[in-house]
Automatic annotation (TrEMBL), chain A:
Organism expressing this protein natively: Streptomyces olivoverticillatus
UniProt name for this protein: Act minimal PKS acyl carrier protein
Domain Carrier: 3-81
Keywords tagged on the record: Phosphopantetheine, Phosphoprotein
Cited SUPFAM superfamilies: ACP-like
A Gene Ontology biological process term: antibiotic biosynthetic process
InterPro entries linked to this entry: ACP-like_sf, PKS_PP-bd, PP-bd_ACP, Ppantetheine_attach_site
Domain of life: Bacteria
UniProt-recorded Gene Ontology molecular function terms: phosphopantetheine binding
Pfam family, any one: PP-binding
TrEMBL record, chain B:
Organism: Streptomyces olivoverticillatus
Domain Ketosynthase family 3 (KS3): 12-414
Pfam families tied to this protein: ketoacyl-synt, Ketoacyl-synt_C
Highest taxon in the source lineage: Bacteria
UniProt name for this protein: Act minimal PKS chain-length factor (CLF/KS beta)
Alphabetized PANTHER family for the sequence: POLYKETIDE BETA-KETOACYL SYNTHASE 2-RELATED (PTHR11712:SF322), POLYKETIDE SYNTHASE-RELATED (PTHR11712)
Length: 85, 416
């Protein structure tokens, strides 16, 4: 199975939780904390739920708060996609 | 106790309205809505938001052509229900109208007190359907904050950094006035500015069905004949959505920041509760009217117009008409029900009537009551029917009665 990409994550952000007016998701956001992108803990829960629904990777609630940046989410999902595969 | 109350009233700051924002079935935007209201333009129609053809009641005052995403940040739209969308949009209008810049106002001097009666019915139904179709993981985490009564107050507070006293009034249709009364308390306790008023939206299928068991909604299907408060053909009411948000300020603080002429003063307020049904005691409204007038230090003959609750069911209409005749005398004061153009907006109703009363004071014109083909002469009311009435207006009384016995009255007075 191919890797989970930043573009796929951005689609989830746009469709699922919206984008803050002051944020450019197409900028260099890989290592930007979600809090700086305007996403709170409830937004992260929604993002995690959508990843599970669309990619079959379950992110445990206690892991959600550890995923502070888009890069952390991509690495987490990639690692678990490999398990699924 | 009386002495303390009297002294407080003597030295308390005067609370004045300096901004109005409206999202109503017959107009979005204060001046558009006001022009429609004076023109007698109704927003009551067959329900368009879902197929209501098999329901016993089929009419509503829906706010049509309202896209929250056009007015609000995308992040905020996903977190909030339609009731809050109306309030957030109206708040932006009201702050703009008052020429207030919250970012340059000390955060702890600004409060938020709104009213809500129905909760986030539309959001809640959507998420329940997701739960049923897809399971718990499909339910938005924002369900936890979007549905509840205080959601609107909280979101306004967060958006504008208003960290002074905040609260929510939940008293069915009376809540929109109770919020104003609480906002005045907040001003009197030292706040410079309070965002207040109320909105509701319960016109999703689940929200609508939950209103039917009261038996108070009309089953008449002609939008021009359905909601006829104080009429011989009164058959119940039509529900609506939307409301109004108002900016209430300490008059001295408003002057200091260079605000324009206020719309009017919140001169009097009272709340009361009806006696237990079957007790034989009269409804609380006459007492509530007198208490509010006492609070404003005015007499019944000082009142130039009454914006009535106008329930639209014969029993409620009779009770209200009796109380008005008892306090003001038969045909003693012009009475109007502009909500005949919107339906009853629950928490939004009192707030929207207060907005109408303030604009009536500004423009010296009473907006009309529409669709009442034959006013019941037994009510003894001077109902302003069909056409607006231009008369000198200095003092307006607004009445709101909520299901279950909630009763509230405000007295609004022209300033200057």
């Amino acid at each position: 199975m191919s890797a989970f990409t930043l573009d796929q994550l951005k689609t989830i952000l746009r469709e699922g939780v919206g984008v803050d007016e002051a944020v450019d998701l197409d900028g260099p956001i890989l290592d930007t904390p979600f809090s700086s992108l305007g996403y709170d803990s409830l937004a992260l829960l929604e993002i995690a739920a959508r990843i599970q629904n669309q990619y079959g990777v379950a992110i445990r609630d206690e892991d959600v708060e550890l995923l502070a940046t888009p890069r952390a989410v991509l690495e987490y999902v990639d690692a678990h996609l490999a398990e699924v595969a | 106790m009386t002495g303390l109350a009297a002294r407080t009233a003597d030295t308390a700051p005067t609370a004045v309205f300096t901004g109005i924002g409206v999202t109503a079935p017959n107009g979005v935007g204060t001046e558009d809505w006001w022009a429609a209201t004076l023109a007698g333009k109704s927003g009551i129609d067959e329900i368009g938001g879902f197929d209501a053809r098999t329901y016993p009641s089929r009419l509503a005052g829906e706010v049509k052509d309202f896209d929250a995403a056009e007015h609000l940040p995308a992040r905020l739209v996903v977190e909030t229900s339609r009731m809050s969308h109306f309030a957030l949009v109206a708040t932006a209008m009201a702050l703009d109208d008052a020429a207030v810049d919250p970012a340059s106002t000390p955060e702890y001097t600004m409060g938020v007190v709104t009213a809500n009666a129905s909760g986030g019915a539309e959001f809640g139904q959507r998420e329940l359907q997701k739960l049923w179709r897809g399971g718990p993981r499909d339910v938005s985490p924002y369900m936890s904050i979007a549905w509840f009564y205080a959601a609107t107050t909280g979101q306004i507070s967060i958006r504008y950094g208003m960290r002074g006293p905040c609260g929510v009034a939940v008293a069915e249709q009376a809540g929109g006035l109770d919020a104003l009364g609480q906002a005045r308390r907040v001003v009197r306790s030292g706040a410079a500015l309070v965002v207040t008023g109320g909105t509701d939206s319960s016109l999703s299928p689940a929200g609508f069905v939950s209103q039917l068991p009261t038996g108070l909604l009309t089953t008449v299907t002609d939008p021009l004949r359905a909601y006829q408060p104080f009429g011989t053909e009164a058959s119940g009411y039509v529900p609506g959505e939307g409301g109004a948000i108002l900016v209430l300020e300490d008059a001295a603080a408003a002057r200091r920041r260079g605000a324009g002429r206020p719309y009017g003063e919140l001169a009097g307020y009272a709340a009361a509760f009806d006696p237990r049904p079957g007790s034989g005691r009269p409804p609380a409204l006459a007492r509530c009217l007198r208490t509010a007038l006492d609070d404003a230090r005015l007499r019944p003959e000082d009142v130039d117009v009454v914006f009535a609750d106008g329930h639209g069911t014969p029993g409620h209409d009779r009770e209200e008409a009796r109380a008005l005749a008892e306090v003001f005398g038969p045909h003693g004061v012009p009475v109007t029900v502009p909500k005949t153009m919107t339906g009853r907006l629950y928490a939004g109703g009192g707030a929207l009537d207060a907005a109408a009363a303030l604009l009536a004071l500004r423009d010296q014109v009473v907006p009309p009551t529409v669709h009442v083909t034959r006013p019941d002469p037994g009510h003894g009311l001077d109902l302003v029917l069909g056409q607006p009435r231009e008369i000198p207006l200095r003092t307006a009384v607004v009445v709101a009665r909520g299901h279950g016995g909630f009763t509230a009255v405000t007295v609004l007075r022209r300033t200057g």
